[in-house]
């Protein structure tokens, strides 16, 4: 079973070396694959710059996600280097325990390989679509974490039943439809991204306020302003999925939390007059 990839976007010239520090999250039996995206530049008539390998040593210090236990050790990782307009991503199907920084594959925003001898993650097209559709997104993560995937397989939204959900997701976490036969057989990964992007636009969902989605019969995707936030939102999604499952098991007639309570918890953290925390 495949899991996807994370990309994070930073201003030109910034080194991504520290983006993964502190990412000590437990996905149970699943962990995401991570890589780095730098601010995009126009590709026409502009020479592709050499990848900034000055950040490579940081790979050894920031691969905290390596230690998540999963059934397939070919998934997982964080690679903090890259250049403007380039994505650095783990190679497809390579064992995480043997993977080296030099194994990373560099692609541009159109998916063209500009450096590396191995094939990039098969899920790369999904994430490239999301970046192009939503400039607000700076990091994307796809996992098959147990509870969120269970909701996806059931084809159900995760309703905002409490304040944990409301702290990070404004409203329900939607479950979009399954791809049809033609979409699966032709450009499956790209069509997954297109489905997410089109569904959010049709539902008038704000990708900042709702930083995640479930794909029916597949699994969860989440995102954020950078890699750290994207992974954190993936962890939160898994936890609220677990809470929702248990709450609905206890009370099958449970209703979403009152809207005023949802508003209070979301906007005190994320609103124009947010007051939560020290900033």
Description:
This protein has 279 residues and is α+β, with helices and mostly antiparallel strands. It contains 8 helices and 8 strands. The chain has helices at residues 58-62, 124-133, 146-154, 163-168, 181-185, 188-203, 227-250, 259-270, and strands at residues 36-37, 86-89, 105-108, 113-115, 139-142, 175-176, 212-215, 219-224. The protein has a 4-stranded antiparallel sheet with strand order 1-2-3-4, with no helix packed on it. A 4-stranded mixed sheet has the order 5-8-7-6. Strand 7 and strand 8 (219-224) form a beta hairpin. Helix 2 (124-133) runs parallel beside helix 6 and helix 3 (146-154) crosses helix 7 (227-250). The longest helix has 24 residues, at 227-250. The chain is globular and about 55 Å long. The chain starts with 35 loop residues before the first strand and ends in a 9-residue tail after the last helix. The relative contact order is 0.16. The model is unreliable at 1-31 and 39-83 (pLDDT under 50).
Separate helix tally: 8
Total strands: 8
Q: Main β-sheet: number of strands, strand sense, barrel status? A: 4 strands, antiparallel
- The radius of gyration computed from the alpha-carbon positions, rounded to a whole number of angstroms, is 18 Å
User: Uncertain spans, ≥5 residues at pLDDT below 50?
Assistant: 1-31, 39-83
Strand order of the biggest β-sheet: 1-2-3-4
Pairing-aware structural class of the strands and helices? alpha+beta
Tell the overall outline: globular
Note the beta-strand portion. 5-15%
Q: How far apart are the termini?
A: 41 Å
Assign a percent range to the helix content. Answer: 25-40%
Order of helices and strands: EHEEEHEHHEHHEEHH
Q: Could you report the average pLDDT, rounded to the nearest whole number?
A: 75
């Amino acid at each position: 079973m495949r899991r996807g990839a994370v990309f994070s976007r930073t201003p030109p010239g910034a080194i991504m070396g520290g983006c993964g520090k502190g990412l000590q999250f437990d996905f149970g039996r699943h962990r995401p694959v991570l890589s780095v995206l730098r601010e995009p530049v126009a590709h026409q008539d502009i020479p592709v710059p050499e990848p900034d390998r000055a950040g490579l040593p940081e790979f050894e210090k920031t691969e905290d996600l390596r230690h998540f236990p999963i059934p397939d050790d070919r998934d997982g990782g964080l690679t903090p280097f890259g250049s403007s307009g380039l994505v650095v991503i783990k190679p497809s199907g390579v064992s995480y325990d043997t993977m080296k920084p030099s194994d990373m594959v560099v692609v541009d925003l159109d998916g063209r390989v500009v450096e590396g001898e191995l094939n990039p993650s098969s899920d790369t097209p999904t994430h490239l679509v999301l970046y192009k559709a939503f400039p607000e997104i700076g990091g994307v993560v796809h996992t098959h974490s147990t509870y969120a995937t269970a909701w996806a397989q059931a084809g159900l939204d995760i309703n905002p039943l409490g304040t944990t959900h409301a702290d990070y997701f404004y409203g329900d976490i939607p479950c979009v439809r399954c791809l049809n036969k033609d979409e699966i057989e032709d450009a499956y990964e790209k069509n997954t991204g297109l489905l997410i992007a089109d569904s959010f636009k049709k539902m008038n969902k704000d990708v900042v306020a709702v930083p995640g989605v479930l794909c029916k019969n597949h699994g969860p995707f989440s995102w954020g302003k950078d890699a750290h936030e994207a992974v954190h939102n993936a962890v939160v999604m898994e936890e609220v999925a677990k809470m929702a499952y248990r709450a609905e098991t206890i009370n099958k007639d449970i209703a979403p939390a009152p809207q005023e309570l949802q508003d209070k918890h979301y906007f005190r953290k994320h609103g124009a007059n947010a007051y939560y925390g020290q900033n």
